[in-house]
Write a structure and sequence with these properties.
1 helix; mainly alpha; extended
Length: 68
């Protein structure tokens, strides 16, 4: 990264999560492999079955279908 270059969304999220959970959590690397979706009030998105996902902050409601 060059001096004065702005961080991208994944880098910003990674640094935020390191502040919250410490730098010993290897799971934080998954930050760079997942998409970042920002929803405004009243917006939603659909996540397919067996698709990894995580909620970082904010209020939410997750609706799921019946499973085994």
């Amino acid at each position: 990264m060059e001096k004065g270059e702005e961080l991208d969304e994944h880098q910003k999220l990674f640094l935020l999560l390191i502040d919250q959970y410490g730098n010993g959590d290897i799971g934080l690397l998954f930050t760079f492999f997942l998409n970042i979706i920002k929803c405004s009030k009243g917006e939603a998105f659909v996540c397919s079955p067996d698709e990894p996902h995580a909620y970082i902050q904010g209020e939410l409601m997750e609706a799921m279908v019946n499973s085994d």
